[in-house]
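Quick one: structure for this chain?
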Amino acid sequence: MNIVYGGAFNPPTRAHLEVYHFLKKHLKVKRFTYLPVSNAYTKSELASNYHRLNMLKIMTNAYADILISDLEIQDQEFLGTYQSLIRLSDRDFQETAFVIGADNLKDLKHWKMAESLMSEFRIIVLNREAMDINALIKNDEVLHKHKHNFMVFNDFDSPISSTIFRETLDESMVTPEVYEYIKKHGLYNGS
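Got it. Here's what it folds into:
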C-alpha cells in the first residue's frame, strides 16, 4: 500500500512520526510519503515552505523508506488532495491511501473534489480526542456513502499537536534535531 500523509507539518512533531510507526505496524506499507501543503494553501501561522520541508527531512532522515514530497510546495496554487494523490499514484502499487485525523473527517466532504477523493482512494482515519469516528461516518450522508473506503483506527490517539507546540514550545513534542532547527532559525518565537 502506498500511504500519503498530508498536512501543514507546522512543525513536524513526534505525533507525525508516530503515525508512520503505527501504520507500518498495522498495514503492509510499501511506500510512506509525507506531503506538506504549500503556502498557497491559506492557513494562518505557517512557517515557510523551505523550513517546513527541511524540518520534515531532518525528522525522517534515519528512515530510508520515507519519502518527503515537495509536490504541493512546487504548485503555484492549491489544487487539492485529490489532484495530489492522482499525481503521486503509481501503477506498481495496488492501492493508495491518504491519512487524516478524525478531526478532519467532519470537513472532508467540503474538500476540493471530495467525492472523487473518497470514491477513488482509501482514507485512513486516525482517532483524535476520542472521537466516535464510526458514528460520524454513519450519521453523515456523504461520508456514509463512501464508508467502504474508510480504514478507521480508533486505537491511535496522540496528545501531541503542532498547535500545542507552537503555543508552548514544549521541546518534548518534537525530535531534538527539529527543536534545534527551530531554535537556530527563530521559528515560532523559539529564538
